[in-house]
## 1
Amino acid sequence: MKKMFLLCAAIFAVFCTVGFSARAEAAGKILVAYFSYQGHTERVAQEIASQTGGDLFAIRPATPYPGYDECLDVAKAEKNNNARPAIDGRVENMADYDVVFVGYPIWWYDAPMIVLTFLEGYDFSGKTVIPFATSGGSPLSDSLDSVRAAASGATIGEGILANDIDDVAPWIAGLGYAK
Ligand SMILES: Cc1cc2nc3c(=O)[nH]c(=O)nc-3n(C[C@H](O)[C@H](O)[C@H](O)COP(=O)(O)O)c2cc1C
């Protein structure tokens, strides 16, 4: 009887191990990259990393943006000039990631130009890029054409406008990336 119990326990343990590792493999390795000027998008990025077990990467401008009023003008000029503002730092091990969440505030009804600098800096072939944003009311959809064009080779996943942090958990669960 005891042997039978031990055998069942061993079989159960093997099934659990195989089951969990299969799920981890299906999700692949996750990166949560984000640009945030005032901290809202950063908070969402941290929540996504915590829900998925992904690594965080902050997209930081080589030249910091000025205070709010001036930043409005700088960001507008960058958009009008189709600029690609330089980023401080790089994801050296991008090849390791299968899924890359990319977050940003909506700026002038689009993704900030620095997010395009980031997306154009890597080969996303074979990877899934999932956009998320915060805004003062503009929808995520305003930015999707730019993201699609800049993320060469990527499959674009179902993104979210995450102005309400409580929307993150059900969205991640729906994508199948909850850890
Ligand atoms: C330069 C600039 C442009 C903005 N343009 C828009 C916009 O077009 N639509 C909108 O709803 N909010 C706009 N906002 C507001 C931000 O999208 C919003 O406050 C966002 O949550 C900020 O995210 P962050 O804290 O991660 O920087 C803009 C803010 C700035 C600084």
## 2
Amino acid sequence: MLLSKNEILIWLKNWIRYPLVLGAVLPTQRFASNIMASEISSKISTVVELGAGTGQITKSILDKKLKHENLFLVEVNKEFSEILKRKFPNANIYNEDAISFLDKFQTRFGKKIDIIVSGIPLVSLDKNTREKICELSVENLSENGKFFQITYFIRCSFPMSIIKKFGLSKRLQGFTPLNIPPAFIWKIYK
Ligand SMILES: C[S@@+](CC[C@H](N)C(=O)[O-])C[C@H]1O[C@@H](n2cnc3c(N)ncnc32)[C@H](O)[C@@H]1O
């Protein structure tokens, strides 16, 4: 999906203001977005995208024919959430912090999540926040649930402590140099 000039300006303005929250100088580009969405299909019933930004990965997710109503987009930035609402009027969009969203997920929706796709820059968060987001994510995953995380370092940013605690596995799902910055996509699964 091409970004409009206006969206790029909004992104850059927010990147200057909140560099650690955004974590990347530009939204994710197509090759990396497609790896993030590689295991999505029309048969999946619940997908949550954490840190959906301006919807680059969202577009790849919906290209895999996932029903819009089965997709939950979580984005802490209000301006980005407004862009998401305009682009994906039929998706469930929450202008909320990932921790509060995940904490309430099962009471709110009465179900588990099959796939979580995360663009949240885990490496720039403090240890407690990073661990809380990842722990709540795992607690909300269904029996065969999977968590995909984009990062710009080879090292998996999903905390080892949570992988050990829940007996999870991890694998490098893909890497692309055709992203600014070059991106690694990790899969964490039960
Ligand atoms: C690297 S950007 C990725 C945006 C988009 N997914 C993409 O790939 O272009 C990270 C996004 O996560 C959002 N974010 C960071 N911390 C968050 C949190 N705790 N809860 C929800 N969103 C968060 C930021 O506002 C930003 O939009």
## 3
Amino acid sequence: MKKPGLAQIDPAAAPEPHGSEPSGVDVRVARDVCSTDRAAAGPDAQPGGIGEITAHLLCGPGCECDENGVPLQTIAEQGPVLSVRGLSCSYGDHVAFQNVDLDVAKGQITALIGPSGCGKTSLLSCVNRLTDLIPGCRVAGRIDLGDLDVLSASLDTVALRRRVGMIFQKPNPFPLSIRRNLELPLREHGMKSKARRAETITRVLRDVGLWDEVRDRLDELATGLSGGQKQRLCIARALALEPEIILFDEPCSALDPISSGVVEDLIAGLRGKYTVVIVTHNLAQARRIADRVAFFWVRNGVGRLVEQGTAQQIFEQPGDELTRAYVAGMRG
Ligand SMILES: Nc1ncnc2c1ncn2[C@@H]1O[C@H](COP(=O)(O)OP(=O)(O)OP(=O)(O)O)[C@@H](O)[C@H]1O
Ligand SMILES: [Mg+2]
């Protein structure tokens, strides 16, 4: 049987209830980070770096903060930093996913979960327009990143990818030195001062916990690092450009358990400072680090967003039977 092409997709004709938040729901999103005590953060605390967040000092009365010192408000109050509406993606005649509505809150970690082939990677690819590079791939619907219309034909994709960092399953450092891996994107994006580049390189390597491991071998090939170190270098490379949002596609799945734990802790530490979307098949990981979770499923060969909500809602009180079965690890 022929699969429907994108031209046949009519989001309005096939509405799927998938838990988009009604206004006023208490979905918490981060505002700017509150005051911090850098001295208390210890040697790793960099101005504006991740260590700074961990040393947050509690604000005064009336200020609501999460455990990282990030003040909170609701999506209804602030609006999502990334808004996906009626999004569909197809490869030739094959519809990867259809009619997805998703809100990603500023400063939070949103996990995308669901079985293989439900369109998680395709969705991330739409957000940084990697889909442009795939012949026959078509995307319909709307994606807004702040004030940016991501799917606009006139969009500068180089500028977009500065705002949207992407980390893949398999770490992919350039076959260059550790230093050049970080220097190259900074130069490409216009950081002319050598001193500023050196400062940024040190800061991001500290932020990912690599500085002490590589400070004496910055001019050695990055390809000689271990898998976990390579992944942390790739994260440092993304952080160097100070993206608004970082997309992680199964960032730990190619790593040994120890390295996986280190990278997971690193991602958890980005909360509040960066907005993170992470695809993971590791439900325990999603439960440990995600603030919000979106659950996808494949129906009739087409990926759908079944349900989204806080991690607690999805794991403890899912609204849909499919979600309940999936998070309980049921098969068949
Ligand atoms: N470049 C491509 N060309 C053709 N079809 C593709 C391409 N990329 C993905 N697809 C198809 O789109 C659907 C969604 O794939 P996608 O990789 O987005 O799923 P996924 O949820 O990330 O799966 P996994 O968990 O296995 O990584 C699948 O049916 C897949 O075969
Ligand atoms: Mg994938």
